[in-house]
Amino acid sequence: MTGQMKLLRDLAALAADHYDVLIVGGGIYGAALAWEAASRGLHVALVEKADFGAETSANSLKIIHGGLRYLQHADLKRLRESSRERRALLRIAPHLVHPLPTVVPAYGHGVRGREALALAVAANDLLSADRHRGLADPQKRIPRGQVLSRERMLALAPGIEREGLTGGVLYYDAQVMSAERLPLAFLRSAIERGARVANYAEVTGLLREDERVIGAQVTDRLTGEVFEVRARLVVGAAGPWVNRLLDRAGVPQRVGHVKAINVIVPPLFEQVAVGLPSRSRDGGRLFFVAPWRGVSLVGTYYVPAGDDPDALHVTREEVEAFLAAVNRAYPPAGLAAEYVTFVHAGLLPAKGSGTRLARRPVIREHGPDGAPGLLTVVGVKYTTARAVAERTVDRIFRLRGQTPPRSISATTPLYGGDIERFDDFLREQVRQDSLGIGEGGVMRLVYHYGSALPDVLRYADGGRGPDAALRAEVLYAVREEMAQTLADVVLRRTGLGTAGHPGETTLRRCAGLMAAELGWSEARIRQEIEDVNAAYPAWTVRREVVDGAELADRTV
Fold this sequence. Notes:
This protein has helices at 11-16, 28-39, 76-92, 114-127, 150-156, 181-192, 242-249, 316-329, 385-399, 422-432, 438-449, 453-457, 466-480, 486-493, 504-518, 522-533, 549-553; strands at 18-24, 44-47, 63-64, 97-107, 146-148, 165-176, 196-198, 201-209, 212-220, 226-236, 257-265, 273-277, 286-292, 295-304, 342-349, 362-365, 374-378. It has 556 residues and is of the alpha/beta class. β8 and β9 form a beta hairpin. α2 packs parallel to α6, α2 (28-39) packs across α9 (385-399) and α10 (422-432) packs across α11 (438-449). The two termini are 24 Å apart.
């Protein structure tokens, strides 16, 4: 699906129409819901208070879980759902989602021993026996798990604790190369079916008629303009901002949240992701170290969160406590705060107080709470956003007294995903290399844009080399993907800044290109650069990357 519909920010058109569904929130859940609803014939609007995918969705561990971890709770339903959704994402977003080999060491002969882990991967293979159904591309197939000898385990994860080590297991999950671009792919697909969307458009009130919610008052955060969007049903998919929406509806329910922290550090393991058993003082859980774009993504550390999602902040003390726990699990890491190049943090739904995570999504219609016409969705996993969207749209049709049409979202390629065999497509793009940017540069573009890459390269305007590639990406982001700020481009469209600071040279070049497009003054350019710099804690390492060349060479 690589049509010509663009993400254009037209608030006048958004306000002028009447919709079946108004979705509040443009993260992975809102974006998947917009595509699901539009693909089944509903007229859809979506508004997002910040940028699309800018909050929790961007700050994930990037792992598309197949559900193996749910075996420890005998939660076979969640395992099966996770396996199906991993398969769906491998199929519909083949440029963004790829298999990820993962190893877990075995110690002793108890619940973390080789025998128990071998039984777990065997059960996982059996329960996910349909994991290849409909996947014609061999690159997207998830191999069977393997039991590893002690020697093989040490070869794959050198430096892990040797005392009591009896071997390990190798299994496969999947990884999303850009957690920010997957919501964009859902949204681009939704507008192909007639949806209207806008970022930096905040719901500041709800419209009512005879007590029923009939739409929302929306404030343009870029201009301060206030307008109305009317719809038969308002669906809140606002992540940790759901409480704010419930407040505006006069609904007393509250969703608690936990702060989840993942960090980017220099590569610890290069071939596989590794599940590191924590020491007893850290709760007996696993820390995962995943290779990602030439660095290691380490997670996840949970700490209590406050009530205000706008106040989300990660302190150096929290990062140091996290790294200390990782160092106890894997002493050779020797991590210190200065090694961290970026901190990913988000708020996840909690179960009760403390840092326990909610296990199941909640889809709730608020008529019984005094707000008919309002429905909220609280998701718990990035992986299952599409499935929750499917169930939500089923509910919407039933609320309308209609039989839900069949969902097509598990099998229909998203924007950029029109690729039959990924490896063949990648080889062909590397062979062509129309910009002369080398294999690494082409790979980075393919893993970001997939079959939409020709649409991006049009903006190179005949130039060649890394500077032409950067120009093409920035102009594409502004003209076709609704990028409004430098952070939108650097952190959520191109990925140049998501593994670490891209360097002042790259920031200045990107800002200059955006200034020419959007009429920014020199003062605005300086402010935009300062805003991006503020996304990196002052104590993180900043390496100079000239025009994205280093990132191009360090990709997958």
